[in-house]
Every structure is written in C-alpha cells, then in structure tokens.
Amino acid sequence: MTPTHLPGRVAIPSLPEQTRTPPSPDALEAFNAAPADTVRRALLACLHSPRWADRLADHRPYPDVESLLAASDEAAYDLAPGDLAQALAGETLPVLPEGVYGAAHTALSAAHAAYEAKFGHAFVICVDNLSPNEALDQALAGIRSRLTNDPEEERVVAAEELRRLAKGRLLDSLRGAGL
C-alpha cells in the first residue's frame, strides 16, 4: 500500500495525521511573547534545524495554533538539503515503549544499522497516535521497507517524517508551556 501523505515509491502504510489536543490560547500567547532565544531553544528541540527554528521564531506573533502549524510545515518543506541533513543528524533511533521484548530491540537496532549505513543518517518515522505495539510494528515495517528506497526517494520520505515529528513536538512543547 502506498501512503497518501508521502510522494514517491514508498512501501509503508499511511499514518494518520496527529490528532492531539490543541494547546491552550495562553500557551500560544506565551510562545508569541517569549524572548527569541527561549523560543529558538524550544524549537530546536522540536526539529534540529536552526533555519527552521529561526524562521518560526522570526515570524511571531501567530494569531492561532493552526497558523503556527502551517508555518511549521512551510518552513520544513523549504529546508535546503544541508538544513535537512543537519536536522536528521540531530535525530536518534525511535524510542521503543517499555516492556517491549528484547528481540524487537535487536531487530530494530540491526535494521537501523543497515539504514544508517545506506543513507548516512538516523531513521525517522512519526508513530504518533499509535499504541506501543502498533508503533513498534510500524517502525520495524517502515525501516525495512524504506531500505528499498534510493537515496533521493528516502530524502523526501525522511523530510516528510521530520515535518510530521516537528508538528507533534511543537504541539507538545506548547502544551507543556515550556516557553
């Protein structure tokens, strides 16, 4: 099944867009009013791209969360190859839920090593809104199937997954009012 949210020849199932509870209006106000350095640090935790973080921070204030998320998407889509490489360099292997059996850790670690050797960066996949077992299955299926991509196809897929991860992390950051 080819996912609808990813271009190219990708053999992983489509994942739902994030359906998190929106942050409070006060959280957006705090984001808009926080010092630029504070906002940039928080944004760099969402996506390890200074260009992306600067762009979102510099375009404040945002009238609503939807506008912030749209700006996040646009900035992520506009990342140059070097910016994308920098963002990918900051990512690590997806964390498996507690209680996952050792064989799964071994399988994911082995697949990740093969992925890193082929593409030169960490495997990224957004598994938001999935149960722990579904997330593990999705990560394993995704990494195995994406190993068949050529480097350009995988760059596009990885960029899309980073975009989705950044949106979820941004919502989590706002909800946590860490700004």
Automatic annotation (TrEMBL):
One Pfam family per UniProt: OHCU_decarbox
Mind listing the GO molecular function terms for this protein?
A: 2-oxo-4-hydroxy-4-carboxy-5-ureidoimidazoline decarboxylase activity
> Which residues does the UniProt record annotate as the domain Oxo-4-hydroxy-4-carboxy-5-ureidoimidazoline decarboxylase?
32-89, 104-170
Q: Which GO terms fall under biological process for this protein?
A: purine nucleobase metabolic process; urate catabolic process
Assigned keywords, A-Z:
Decarboxylase, Lyase, Purine metabolism
Per the record, what are the reactions this protein catalyses?
5-hydroxy-2-oxo-4-ureido-2,5-dihydro-1H-imidazole-5-carboxylate + H(+) = (S)-allantoin + CO2
Question: What InterPro entries does this protein map onto?
Answer: OHCU_decarboxylase, OHCU_decarboxylase_sf
Q: Where is this region: Disordered?
A: 1-25
**Does the entry feature the keyword Lyase, yes or no?**
yes
Q: EC?
A: 4.1.1.97
Query: According to its UniProt record, in which pathway does this protein act?
Result: Purine metabolism; urate degradation; (S)-allantoin from urate: step 3/3
Supply the PANTHER family for this chain: 2-OXO-4-HYDROXY-4-CARBOXY-5-UREIDOIMIDAZOLINE DECARBOXYLASE-RELATED (PTHR43466)
* Name under which the protein is recorded: 2-oxo-4-hydroxy-4-carboxy-5-ureidoimidazoline decarboxylase
